[in-house]
User: Which sequence fits this backbone?
């Protein structure tokens, strides 16, 4: 499960993305992210949500790079695994522990 801080960070950053990034592409990714955040409460046996959530965050970060680089940076921080990776070129694989990674503090 995600921490309360992580839920708050995801809610805040996805809300910012909706207001700051034009177009349907961002809306689609925010919708996916919010769906993946809710998935564990309804289907706790599904473990693939972590990788899907990380991939959606990575994709939204990539979209944000074109419009709001500072937002992209903060979104990217949520999609990284805590294995000393300074920049992510592909989303983390399933089972990489993204739930732990998503507990990172977002400035």
Assistant:
């Amino acid at each position: 499960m995600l921490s309360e801080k992580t839920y708050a960070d995801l809610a805040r950053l996805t809300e910012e993305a909706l207001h700051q990034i034009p177009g349907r592409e961002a809306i689609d990714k925010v919708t996916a992210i919010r769906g993946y955040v809710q998935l564990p409460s309804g289907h706790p046996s599904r473990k693939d949500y972590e990788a899907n959530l990380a991939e959606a965050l990575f994709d939204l970060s990539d979209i944000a790079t074109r419009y709001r680089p500072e937002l992209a940076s903060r979104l990217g921080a949520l999609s990284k695994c805590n294995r000393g990776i300074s920049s992510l070129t592909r989303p983390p694989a399933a089972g990489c522990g993204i739930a732990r990674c998503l507990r990172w503090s977002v400035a």
Remarks:
- Residues 4-101 form one domain.
- Residues 42 and 61 are 26 Å apart (CA to CA).
